[in-house]
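Annotated sample (chain length 172).
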Amino acid sequence: FSLDGRILAVAANDATSGFVRVFEFLPGQTWAAIGSDIRIEGIDFDFSLSKSGTVAAITSFTEQTVAVYAFTSNNGQWVLLGPEKIALKGVQRVVVGGDGNVLGVTGIEPSSNSGALVGKMFLYGYDEREDWTLLAQVEGESISFGSALAQTSNGTVWAIGGSNSVQIYHFS
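Output written by the structure step:
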């Protein structure tokens, strides 16, 4: 849901692919689709909607990517933000922070210390070059780090969950 509850995103899949469909609550007590479906390769994915409801981020476990889309009211379509999707091995969760210009993503990669697989959280910002830039990276102690992800409405405080623990980080 958007922050005001007027925009809602839902996801579904068939045998080979998935999609996210976004709806807006209109006067007269009806829900109407906004733009066309956002298609995802593969059937395993996670998605998040910005507080305004106009930015959607979607992970594809199959493609190992994160794609961020913005709704453009002038042509009524969802368009990719940035020149390409963000590639990330072992991608798990995604959360759009702030007004859609901050993105938290978790994935499983080798530890920078031991080489063992661990969960990591990557914080991206959408910059003036219209591209996603890595702002911060947090490495967990186990593979379950990043299995849950949440943030405050302004995108500065993030909660990252793992087995039997939650860690809180403040990014400014």
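Annotation: Residues 57 and 126 are 12 Å apart (CA to CA).
Annotation: The radius of gyration is 16 Å.
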